[in-house]
Design a protein that fits this description.
With about 725 residues, the protein is α/β, with parallel strands linked by helices. The chain has 26 helices and 24 strands. Strand 5, helix 12 and strand 6 form a beta-alpha-beta unit. About 5% of the residues have low confidence.
Length: about 725
């Protein structure tokens, strides 16, 4: 092998030395003018300096830097081949084929010539099923690659770990045909846990099926989670494609039993007996697969499924759950849902793809159609986890929901769903919205209806009991507190049947249905805005913009002359009472304009709720939903807004108005107490006030006008 065959990035070096990444930068800079300088980079790859692995290992050994005394022996496990002088995919394939050959032969390749290696490959793969062609294509590089494989296996402690090291290398080498659609660790964990949970209810001889031949990452993740279950059998296509041959090598190296799957040119195939079909679309060998072809691939799965088989599919949310489809794609998706086998639809958060972190994915769980339920009463589980980080706890709860969705009516009723909602399948087919519209989950902790009602009653009791003390009266209660205390709170029991009612809708959906109206902000000249108004005046109008919404300036702190606004901005718009004013930059923020007749200055804008057809929107709730958005979420048309039922909207609005009034009074009292505190400290310490202690035990509210007096001799 050439001197620079193995290369390392700074991150690789940190992993090898078992230190943090910044430590390597410190070594590199501080040793530059010493007798043992850090090795110089030999090239740049992907915008990063890369170093000769042998030189780095020697330097670490000689200087005794880092926390790995075996750095020299472990270097190969943290380095990657220098692919600069060869076809990346060809070299990658040859190395993985050599790993499979070494697994099959059980011997290292020391002192073997290229001819010897090909003879050995012919002996162990006489039909060229998965490795011979790759070794033959390596040509004159085969001997050097074999030497590298021996070193890599020794450093990685086995062919299996060495193979996974190569699979990890595909991302750094930017091998797009291998990693363009690759799932990240979180998505793989989710797929593995879902598959494992679904297979737990199947016979022990259940087979995992990958009809595309490119879901090797998913299969390996499942294998990892099911290690306690014993041997796992996987059925994969028997074709000669690059992805299929790589999958066969990977399964062989890890000792996973494989069965051949005959897939026709049309994509049709057949599987007998219990099976779990796992699919990731688009497949790695066809990253540009159109949406209609993805749905066609799922249709092939559905067509051959029996009632004892299950399937889990992950694909772009734009195909499996979102709206905005072409007519052809929409019809194909509707046909699949109409089959009754789509038992769950889950929209997942972005960040699950390695190379496309902004592309959201969705998950489908397929199973037997409801045998004892009429077509009109069949249900589908839907969930929207767009805002939910897929932590281990969140994945566990989602998996529990998905498993429950496959049960009958009684088991579904008995399950407390964490993220999902059951809707009638007919409503999914009739709606033109996203399949998961209105069910977006939040990170708020779940609480039962009874717990919520109990806590509300407790708070109302405390507030009502505190009111007399705050008004210096033993009988009178403020109107706002009385209104709140008069509320009757009833917990709502869980529905006995799946319901299609939505709890939220996006701004775009509400605009389309006429429930809200969007009004852009006014573009005002800065000189026209009075930044230091003398006070509220009938001749001026208050100005509201992002600084007010973000709390950086008080509402009413900026104003504009009425006549000037009317003359200079004849097309200008003012607010109406109840308008929700919002902005997206520097972060989402909103406030309700209860007074109206305010000038909203761009980039702030207005959402005006249609009073006659509100869709259950309450201005205060809408503002709260906007204020709770992730600071990075600027796509306001996709924001979900909660809706109240028509019979509860008015009561909720009145209750919230009472709470806001109470909050305002409390803030005023707090401001008065702060002012009193400052005056007492200033007056007494300056000698302008004296305090007369009241007789008897002192109390926090014992201060009265008789206890304060100016010092004698003052006027």
């Amino acid at each position: 092998m050439t001197e620079q065959t193995l290369l390392m990035t700074m991150s690789d070096i940190a992993d090898l030395a078992r230190v943090q990444r910044p430590v390597v930068s410190v070594w590199r800079s501080r040793s530059a003018h010493t007798d043992s300088p850090f090795p110089q980079p030999v090239a740049r790859r992907g915008g990063q300096d890369v170093f000769n692995a042998g030189e780095v290992a020697t330097w670490l050994t000689n200087t005794r830097r880092g926390n790995n005394p075996d750095a020299f022996a472990d270097a190969a496990a943290h380095a990657s081949l220098n692919y600069a002088s060869a076809n990346d995919e060809s070299t990658f394939s040859a190395v993985t084929a050599l790993l499979a050959l070494r697994t099959s032969s059980g011997r290292p390749f020391v002192a073997m010539s290229a001819a010897d290696l090909l003879d050995l490959a012919d002996e162990h793969d006489p039909d060229d099923a998965f490795l011979y062609a790759e070794l033959e294509a390596a040509g004159s590089d085969l001997t050097d690659l074999a030497t590298y494989v021996d070193v890599l296996v020794e450093a990685a402690f086995g062919e299996g770990p060495a193979f996974e090291r190569m699979m990890a290398d595909r991302f750094r080498l930017d091998l797009r045909s291998l990693g363009d659609t690759a799932l990240g660790d979180t998505a793989l964990t989710l797929m593995a846990e879902v598959a494992t949970a679904l297979r737990a209810g199947q016979p022990a001889d259940s087979v995992i099926v990958d009809s595309t031949g490119s879901a090797s990452d998913v299969i390996l993740a499942i294998h990892h989670f099911e290690s306690a279950r014993g041997d796992m059998t996987v059925a994969t296509p028997d074709d000669n494609s690059y992805a299929s041959r790589l999958l066969r090598r990977r399964l062989f190296v890890h000792g996973i039993t494989r069965e051949a799957l005959a897939v026709q040119q049309s994509g049709a195939f057949a599987v007998q007996g219990a099976a779990l079909l796992a699919a990731q679309l688009p497949p790695s060998h066809s990253a540009a697969m159109p949406p209609v072809e993805m749905l066609s691939a799922i249709d092939q799965i559905v067509l051959q499924m029996t009632d004892e088989q299950l399937a889990v599919v992950i694909a772009p949310a734009g195909v499996l759950s979102d709206t905005g489809l072409t007519r052809e794609v929409d019809e194909a998706r509707s046909a699949l849902i109409r089959s009754g086998r789509v038992r769950a639809v889950v929209r997942l958060p972005a960040g699950l793809l390695v190379h496309k972190p902004l592309q959201p994915q969705a998950l489908w769980v397929l199973g037997a159609a409801h045998a004892q339920v009429s077509l009109a009463e069949r249900w589908t589980l839907v969930a929207d986890l767009t805002e939910i980080p897929l932590t281990p706890a969140a994945i566990d709860d989602l998996v529990s929901d998905l498993v429950a969705s496959l049960g009958d009516r009684s088991s579904v009723r008995a399950h407390a769903f964490r993220y999902a909602r059951l809707v009638h399948t007919r409503t999914l087919l009739a709606s033109r919205d996203s399949l998961v519209a209105g069910v977006r989950a939040t990170t708020a902790p779940a609480a039962s209806a009874a717990q919520v009602a109990l806590r509300v009653d407790e708070l109302l009791t405390v507030l009502a009991g505190d009111a007399p003390a705050r008004t210096n009266s033993t009988t009178d209660t403020p109107a706002d507190v009385a209104a709140l205390a008069g509320l009757v709170i009833h917990p709502v029991p869980p529905a006995d049947e799946p319901a299609g009612a939505t709890a939220a809708a996006t701004v775009a959906q509400l605009l389309a249905h006429g429930h809200v109206r969007y009004i852009p902000g006014n573009r005002l000249e800065a000189d026209d805005i009075d930044l230091e108004p003398t006070g509220r005046s009938a001749t001026s109008i208050r100005v509201i913009g992002p600084v007010e919404l973000l709390g950086q300036a008080p509402l009413g702190g900026r104003r504009i002359d009425r006549l000037k606004f009317a003359a200079a901005y004849p097309a200008g718009r003012v607010t109406e009472p109840g308008d929700v004013i919002f902005c997206t930059s520097p972060r989402p923020a909103a406030a309700v304009d209860d007074e109206g007749t305010s000038v909203v200055v761009f980039p702030a804008r207005i959402l005006r709720i249609n009073v006659a057809e509100s869709g259950g929107l309450v201005a205060a709730v809408t503002a709260a939903d906007i204020n709770s958005r992730d600071p990075r979420d600027k796509r306001w048309q996709r924001w979900p807004l909660r809706q109240a039922s028509p019979d509860q909207r008015g009561a909720l609005a009145n209750a919230l108005a009472s709470v806001r009034s109470e909050q305002h009074q409390t803030k005023q009292r707090l401001a008065q107490l702060e002012e009193l505190t400052a005056l007492l400290m200033t007056g007494v310490t300056a000698g302008t006030l004296t305090l007369a202690a009241a007789p008897g035990p002192s109390a926090p509210d014992s201060l009265g006008s008789d206890s304060l007096a100016p010092p004698e001799g003052t006027s």
